[in-house]
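Page 42, continued from yesterday. The earlier attempt failed because a stray header line got pasted into the input along with the sequence. Redoing it now with the clean sequence only.
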Amino acid sequence: PPGNYKLDPVRISVNVVGEDGVGRRREVPFPWLRSEKYENSRMYWGLWIFGGYFFHSTTHYGQLGQPASMGCIRQSYPDAMENFGLAQDYRAMIRIHPTGSEAAYNRLREVTTVAWVTPRLLENGIQVKEIIHDIGTEVVTLGHAWRDPVTGKLGVPVWPRCGAIGCFTVWGKTEPN
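This time it went through. Structure tokens are written below.
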């Protein structure tokens, strides 16, 4: 529904060993979400909006930019990873307007110009099309980086943090190659 929402990672209490070697319970962001409602589909690097709605990655790159769920805001892995990381350092807020509404148009005009946003939207669209061309419409990894403009190769992912700790480390996972 339209409104202003704080974006929060889902946090889970875990035992974290400090530099002094002592374990302490801490609330740590949990980035490995899956949708209980939609066949356990991946929602990695998810930020909670409210209720069952999230701002998260999707494996379905062929459906980006098209309605495909019941209200979540779906993103490419690089974009979702970047937003998840930013939410660790900054208070993340989102304002949701009805699609195509005058309110959405007016708000966009308040915060930026068409000259600023259009090239960025086009660049993002090109990046998604390049990934679809190279690896298909389904992405099966936890993440990837956009293509390096100099080398033309996929870059190395910049993995988000879970607070001051690496997400893979705190959750006992191995960082993908």
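Notes: Helices lie at 77-89, 102-111, 114-135, 167-170.
Reminder to self: strip header lines before submitting.
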